[in-house]
Amino acid sequence: MQKLSILLLMMWLHPILTMAQPAGNIRGIVTDGASGQPLPYVTVIILNSDLPTGTTTDESGNFRLNSLPVGRYDIQTSFVGYEPAVFKEIMVTSGKEVFLEISMLENYRELDEVMVRPKVNKEAPLNTMALASARMLSVEEANRYAGGLDDPARLVTAFAGVSGGLSSNGISIRGNSPTFLQWRLEGMEAVNPTHFSDITGIGGGVISALSSHVLGNSDFFTGAFPAEYGNALSGVFDMQLRNGNNQNYEHAAQIGTLGIEFTSEGPFVKGKQASYLINYRYSTMALVGDLFPDLVGEASGMRYQDLTFKMNFPTQQAGTFTVWAIAIKDHFIQREPKDTIAWMNYFENYAELVGNEADFWQTKAVGGMGHRIFVGEKSYLKSALVANYAQNKTLGEVIYPRHNWERYSVIDMKNTNWNVAFNTFLNTKFSAAHTNRTGFNITRLFFDMDYWLYPNLYDNPGYPLPDNMVNFTKDNGSSMAFSAFTQSLFRLNSRLTANVGLHGMYFLLNEKATIEPRISIRWQTFPKHAFGLAYGKHSRRENTDYYFIKNPLTGELVNKNLDFAKAHHFVVSYDYALSEHLRLKIEPYYQYLYDIPVEKGTHLSLINYYDFLQMLPGLVNDGKGENYGIDVTLERYLHAGYYYLLTGTAFNSRYKDGNGDWRNTRLNRKYIINALGGKEWKMGRQKQNILSANLRFTVQGSEWYIPADEAASKAAKNVVYDNSRAYQLQFSPGLQCHFTVGYKINRNRLSHEFALQMMNITSDKEYYYGYNYRDDKPELQSGTGSIPNLYYKIEF
């Protein structure tokens, strides 16, 4: 009788205990991948649940799975006439709902003729038109991979064919310049959304301004991309901002070494569909430096903040409207050390001791309005009006400690570029075998620049300065750019898919035009094997202000007639699904670049352009380049608590300069090897908490450089480069190691996370030339150490 009473008591308590266990929800929408229409009555099941768990979508394609114990889940959707789809590695926590957007492809033939292997979301990009050299970067990966510091630009350097640096998050794809990459937000070309972009090298920055709290899943293209993408030579990073939760209010706060931020989202009105999402971040070091100036020292000189928001307004008849923006404000302060005695002793051999101090301000913003509306049952029209703004301002002074710290201005530069663009395209699914997307883009471009420079900026001047600053250029102007595209995806049979497209661009200022054919084919030879072939011609317009640089004597626009830089991309791919959780991908490629702007009679080419202070007068389209190599990826998806990603690239990258000589490109690293992985453990009495550890190793060839001319440098008391030997020497290769350790505590409707991210724990170095005044000679110097980010985050 006593045992029976205990059993009845346990049965009565079980629902209460179950309710007390921290849980979360998964919501989402299922749509037709070609037409975008929602799919009703789709079966949605969890594949790795202890108990059978599932649901079906409603008439609007929405589904909801409530009260799931915290942990990771794989979700499969199935529907008659469609290929099943699997979403892997979905993390459910107690502090935030998960929202999924799942697209399914209609079967081309009858069911008995169709391959039944489900399509895994990690195997293909979000853009169904892309058949080669494309990879989806999920928000979950962005939070998990080591070495990224939650920066998507640093995270993608783990992908095959992609390299990056330590001091800069510039993305080099297959040896190309980081400037050849196009950034996109919400489907539109955008300014580089990075703090201090270009200050550590053109095309890169220090850390992304896009928080992982607002970023949605995104696509990353490394070559031969579809026809809808233009004005890019190497690749495209097509990023999306996610929508805020339209049913419940959710918030998050995070404080860490790199920043203090707060995120809020929810419906504007409970029970309605409109939602908001907003995130603000401020640099921790700047805040601590204001409060305790002696505690962090020079680190407080890097001051930054950013604001991101997105508002989503679905309507019954007029479609869906979005309003979004990201704003960035940076200030970098460089000051000479306060210990003037030690500093002056370093220069004891020089009567005219000269110091340098500078301020760099950067303000950037991109934002716009978007609209999407269905046109009948097979088409949708998507349009956007977007504005980009970027302003750099630099002030520099030389100081003379032995002359009562007198100061002379040597740099006063202000450069502003902005544009307003309108884009629209019509997507039509004619049948299960044919989908077309056609659209156009109109951009109004503006610039305003005012450059005051000391005539011999890089010389070591005597005292006093013999000259004043000279107004190198002061001008403003505008022009317009037009582009249009059309592309069709053909499913020729259940195994063979082709994408054929055409992209065209026209620049009004110099009346230059280009037509770019694109074609790609994917052949699913067997359920686990697929081959691909892709070709694309790609072109790129330079920054607007480049075209308005004048000859100081004649006033002539020396770069006005610059043509588009162009490239042919050829890609072959092989995909092999070794198992349900393991995938191998191999991609050989060849790229031929031509009409690259170079300076006649010198080594200078925009392929290697690095210094944003360097002027670019008199460029001509005589440069060429070529990149060829092979990318290999072996990836195990997170399953049974662990994952790994192994990538390797062997390649060669060279260019033809203004002398007609072929040279190594600066980023011709020759090889890149990445190995990263991680493990998760469930902790706590109810296994509701998660301990995670992630590790990454990178071995890669270093950059090529221009050696110093020692005799000329000694004469100038500054580094003078031997340009006749440009990029003939290479720095020593390096080994980088990064790790992340985190612990997430889940409580009812609340989660806490503590994490330590360490970048470059091997203290790998980056090298540059500097002048050693004590030894009176130029020498290679090194910089960059380990970068820690310790943070605490709460979601509720």
What is the strand and helix layout of this fold?
Layout: H1 2-20, E1 23-32, E2 43-46, E3 54-56, E4 62-69, E5 71-78, E6 85-92, E7 98-104, E8 119-120, E9 134-137, H2 139-144, H3 152-155, E10 162-163, E11 172-173, E12 181-185, E13 188-189, E14 194-195, E15 207-208, E16 218-221, E17 235-239, E18 250-256, E19 260-267, E20 275-282, H4 284-291, H5 293-296, E21 302-314, E22 320-334, H6 340-346, E23 355-375, E24 379-400, E25 406-431, E26 434-453, E27 470-491, E28 496-507, E29 512-526, E30 529-540, E31 565-577, E32 582-599, E33 619-639, E34 642-656, E35 662-664, E36 671-683, E37 689-700, E38 704-705, H7 710-716, E39 729-730, E40 734-747, E41 750-759, E42 766-772, E43 777-783, E44 787-795
Parallel strand pairs: 1-7, 6-8, 12-17
Antiparallel strand pairs: 1-4, 2-3, 2-5, 5-6, 9-16, 10-11, 12-13, 14-15, 16-17, 18-19, 18-44, 19-20, 20-21, 21-22, 22-23, 23-24, 24-25, 25-26, 26-27, 27-28, 28-29, 29-30, 30-31, 31-32, 32-33, 33-34, 34-35, 34-36, 36-37, 37-40, 38-39, 40-41, 41-44, 42-43
Structural class: mainly beta
Count of DSSP strands: 44
Rg from alpha-carbon coordinates: 28 Å
Q: Taking all residues together, what is the mean pLDDT?
A: 89
N/C terminus separation = 45 Å
Low-confidence stretches: 1-19, 110-116
Tell me the fraction of residues in β-strands, as a range. over 45%
Helical percent range?
under 10%
Number of helices: 7
* Largest sheet geometry: 22 strands, antiparallel, barrel
List keywords for this structure.
796 residues; 22-stranded antiparallel β-barrel; mainly beta; single chain; five-stranded mixed beta sheet; 7 helices; disordered N terminus
